[in-house]
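User: O-antigen ligase family protein, Undibacterium hunanense:
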Amino acid sequence: MDNVRVSSVDAVLYRDAAQGWRQALPQQILSVLPLTLFFPVGVMYFGVLLFYAGLLVSGGFVRKIQRLRQSPMLLPIFALSLVSVVIAASQGMPDDNAREFWPGFWHYQTYLFLLPFITVAPGIWQRRAMYVFFAGAVVAASLFVANAFHLLPANTLFRSYVVYEGNKSILLGILMAVAAAWMLHELRTHRDHLLWRVLAIVYVAAALILLAKTRTASLLFVLLCVILILRQMGWSWRTFALPLVLLAALFGGWKYALSLPPPPTCEIRLVQAGPWEIFKLRSICTIQQLRDFSQGRKVNEDGMRLEIYRITADIIADDPVAGHGIASWMPLYQEKAKGLSSATMTTPHNDYLLYLTELGVFGLLALLGIWAAQLWTARRMSQHEHPRVAELAMPLLMLTVAMMLGGMFNAILRDGVFGMAFMILLAIPLAGLRSE
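Assistant: Predicted structure for O-antigen ligase family protein:
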């Protein structure tokens, strides 16, 4: 009889352990996903598929649905999807570009991929996910350094570190900028291993600015550092003095760059120079291209985005309220840009202009509504009585700023490379969060 009783107890304990392991599986997978962002996009999507499988295995769907219903992001996300559906139904599918319609439509549903992530219960996994993200940034910095010494093979796994691959290379820089800023924020509350933390920040930031080959990420890192400084100073006269000092420094740098003679070339891939020289060259070229464009002069490949923005603005002016319909930007732009070097572009490299072109004012307002919800949620989190929730407010604010700034110069939500990466990172502060 005693043996039977012991066996029954063992069976119950085994069953409870197995059930606990299944319930924790989504959190365990989600805590590792930030590392996949620093490698080819296929690795990231494989990790996402594993998460979906773990979500199905874990069960507890009533609790998951309840968390989703209580999320402050649910209504803003549904609002954007609803606007895209209404525009698609009213505008119809373009006859001359039907093949691009469905990919274009699904790009507007990127935020829907966030919903399964935020059904996961909050917990210690969130801090583990942040440290995995920091480790990924250090790995990325090391790979950039290895490439600088010509030690990295140009195979599929490391190609984005060896060769500039557009959006993926830009994403790597943005991820490193966000990770370095998050690590800086961590110093406020976590002083253990201080020397190693500071060295990691300097290491990642240096690799970002000197080796990552993306101006957007460098600008983002500076902006996030300014936000952290303002947050640390609080509201005082210094809060307003710091931006004025930075603006004065930027103006001085602008005037200095304009006074320099034009560089022989602005095509970075043709330049053989050290990291600092390349960074300085890109900065000078950007400023001089802005001047040339404003004065009606011809711009080269480095200033192509200015040309794209001008022509896209003309397209928007034709129907700014309702937009031209999903997947309409590319054919309309190619028609207006015939003979120009930018005629082969597939996006305007600006989410605000893309949403205005295809979804009109309502689409842009829906997008801004999501980002406003993220900012408002971050503010409410900062006032939360639980330290774990309050500590995640600043990472959410930084992610939102990264998306808003990145959307000015890149297709942050139009491209799945950017979109899914940001959904994974947003899951860290937003998982299991209730609107009240």
